[in-house]
Fold:
Amino acid sequence: MYKDESIKFLALNRNKRSLALDLKTEEGYQIAVEIIEDADVLMENFRSGTMAKLGLSYEEVQEINPNIVYVSGTGFGGDGPYADRPGQDLLIQAMAGLTTQTGERDDPPTPAGTYVPDQHSANLLALHTVIALFHRERTGEGQRVEGNLLNSMIDGMNQTYSVYLNQDNEYERSEEGIANVSAPAPYGIYETSDGYVAISHTPLNVLDEVLDVDLSEYQTEKEAYDKRDEIKRIIEKQTRKEPSQEIVNKLREKDVWVGEVNTLREAATHPQVEHNDMIVEVEHPEVGEYKTPGVPVDLSKTPGEVDSAPPLLGEHSKQILTELGYSSDKIVELVDEGVIVTPE
Structure:
């Protein structure tokens, strides 16, 4: 929580309006129908079957608006043995195998440090919604878009799955924390005298020269994989003697893929992050000013911006109903009957 507001809600709901209505009431349902009649997209992420119970299945919505793009996001899919189960990020990380790919060999299965399935799934749904809208622009036809967290996580692990499914090797996590189960040394995080650095795919002979280590006996990629823990221990014994920035500077001179390991606070104030305007300040009616990531992609003709705070529950109920042609008296009646919700 942040000043009695959900910080997760604040993070994910900028640039939106809120009409809060009870779809189980006849009048609430009719308001939804009026909105659907002119809508381009309907997006829902209830459990499978919930929209049908509300009278808003894909087929029913098609009768209201034949050209609508109807987007559904579920945990596991609209049908199948897990269709009725609740989907949640941690459960999906576990079921898709991500937790067994993260951490060191003797660690328990380890979740990622952020909500990877949730975020990748949302991005995939947004992308495919745009594809469906482009198809409609070309053909006049709407369609249904269905995504789920499980599929999205497997898609996000495309490279990992492809390596596993098409090779005989039984890859496993390394003892010393090589950062990918199928990667050879030196790919990983290395302790320094004052922190850590990340070293990506790099020829070992370059590290010989720059870090004053002897890796000459590891000549092939197979040796770099089979002896990855041994190699990492040799490199890290040396990196522990020097500060992070000194190591980064020396390796960068040789065009090695190396980077600082930042805390969130350090990353948020990093010069490149500041240059990219990726942390913005937003004014909220309840919490005042708060900071949040900005728009990650630049469009030359239609640049995006965070121009409104996440809405209060039902903050725009009256405004939207007025746009639909409802009178002030009727809106007051709907509020009194609990059909719609407003902040007041």
About this structure: The domain at 175-261 is CATH 3.30.1540.10 (formyl-coa transferase, domain 3). The two ends are 22 Å apart (CA to CA).
